[in-house]
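step=predict obj=Bifunctional protein FolD n=284
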Amino acid sequence: MSEARPMNGIEVARDIMERAAERAAQFEARTGAKPCLATVLVGDDPASVTYVRMKRNRCAKYGIESRHVPMPETITTEELVSAITELSNDPSVHGILLQHPVPHHIDERAAFDAIAATKDVDGVTSQSFAAMAFGRDGFASCTPAGIMRLLDAYDVDPRGKHAVVIGRSAILGKPMSMLLLARDATVTVCHSKTADLPSLVRTADIVVAAVGKPEFVRGEWLKPGAVVVDAGYNEGNVGDVAFGEARTRAGLLTPVPGGVGPTTIAVLLEQTVTAAFRQQQISA
């Protein structure tokens, strides 16, 4: 079998961001202000600092204002919720991103749910999850939404396909399953307690790996020709899929880096611009 075709997230993201930039320019021309994304970072975890810097750089490049809101590592849940509530009530802020993960002593769910649904451009609140599950208007979780854009760009129609999602986190695995279900896939969600995981993965037409363990998914687990999306990112630029093994089995395969990551940021910017238009009650 020939090697898997790579799914180039950089190219897909560029298309999304260029369209978002055009809409951001329209918004500024009509309102005199740029769409504004507030990035809230608790502590100074090096990986989180890097992620926030990348997002802020993308904002600057594509005509979106980025307001950085650093918080000390020692902040309490109550103080963080108060700060996020203040941003939610600030009309000059159109989108709010709370960088994940937060320190262990913080109630992350309470902090996420302090974000107004109209400004939840990262799609992390309970209200946004409900919107995804029930097919209502709202903002999708950025990584799962970015994965759907990748599938669309490579003409992968989930309808009738068996999709296996490995991971059940509230901001990746669970919303990923909702978005795939909405597109008529048959979805199996696997996790650390799943029995005989390799056998389940072998039945999948589409595999989404979001387990947070380097090279966890082995090539021999995969059905020949499967679409394999690696949503993991581990130390050393290694994903959750054993790339070298998978490329000889899969039909389509996302690289790490250069696959899911760029589309995640692109969807974040796109949803920030959409939020700005909605809050001003004007159409693009």
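step=describe
The chain has two domains: 31-117, 142-261.
step=end
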